[in-house]
Amino acid sequence: MVEVRPQLQSIRNRPEPLGAVARLVARALIRCDDETADHQRRIGAYATALAASVGWDREPPRRLFHAAALHDIGKVGVPAAILRKRGRLEGSEMAAMRLHPEIGARLLGTDWHPFLRLAREIALHHHERWDGLGYPRGLRAAAIPMSARIVAVVDVFDALRCDRVYRPALPDGDVVTFLRQGRGRRFDPQVLDCFLRLFQRDGADGLERSGRRLAGYGLRRLPH
Ligand SMILES: [Fe+2]
Ligand SMILES: [Fe+2]
Fold first, then answer.
1. CA 75 / ligand 2 centre spacing (Å)
2. How does pLDDT run across 182-206, given as a tens digit for each residue?
3. Whole-prediction pTM value?
């Protein structure tokens, strides 16, 4: 019998094909009106900057950069009519939308590579809430992986600052007010405080630049 273990080990040790995987998924997600490649890339950069600032260093920055960008990968399994619907989602539509974390986790569902493990953790838990009222697992506070608590803040931040099919972008003042209202409810209070400090100091563009720099991309334009 062929011994596969050494081969598997050598695949595991290869440099991660992060950029290629993330770009592939970004293209797949462009079918969702509100999840553009730019949104995903910003989430990656913001999450990387925020992680450094809260002192979370469990994962290398570049891995987090790309894994965070995949947070909504499960939306490929949600009907486009629901993703693009203007106005509020009905009960059954909302239920279908809320499956995207589980779908994403299943798509990424393998333990064999640390990048996929992190991407799955984020995809599965980025809609959990600090107060336990989130989904899909209803995890509370520190039971929610830190990676997902970080992405939860930057995802809402960026979503509010962008035009969506059902509403225009909010001005920054309103975005900050909304985030503050979620302190200790939707968001980890310490992560949120840290994010607001960063945003007030550097602005969104500064945050994006520092995330990219930490991930090793500097000012280089990321290939599409
Ligand atoms: Fe999501
Ligand atoms: Fe998102």
1. 10
2. 999 999 999 999 999 999 999 999 9
3. 0.88
